[in-house]
Amino acid sequence: MGEGSRFGTKELAAIAVMGALTTVCTMMIQVPFPATGGYFNLGDAIVVTTALVFGPVIGAIAGGLGSGLADLLGGWMAFVIPTTLIKGAEGYVVGYLAGDPAGRTLTKSLIAWLAGGVVIVVGYFVAEAFFLGMGVEAAAAEIIINVPQAIGSVVGVVISIAVKDRLKL
User: Is domain 9-160 annotated with CATH 1.10.1760.20?
Assistant: First the structure.
């Protein structure tokens, strides 16, 4: 990631492009869930793709900001901060656990994806039940939306494998 902890042009471009793509994919299909005011979306596939292709830091920044921006633009104000933190954590966990792309196996990518899914489900449960004040019952009801969303993000593993050898990073 450039010299030291500084971002170079490629890293900044990856954050901008993948963050924007995360926003678009999150906003493209939104299935509302009345119990909590949350919604099902496809943005997690891009968060996973970003983390697997560009690593944990870019995955966290692009995933968090892109997803949070989608909530902001979509009018889901109560979720902007929790989403930014949860999706940022998802991106970091997936990228960190997957490790270096050079020696990565499919099994390692799938374990990282699964851990990212756990971050989503647990993160939203905690945020809704305790920080947003919706209660444990409403937060538990939304697990039925968050689990399929996390499972669907496996598409990000497939996309990352497809583009891995085509990108010159």
Answer: yes
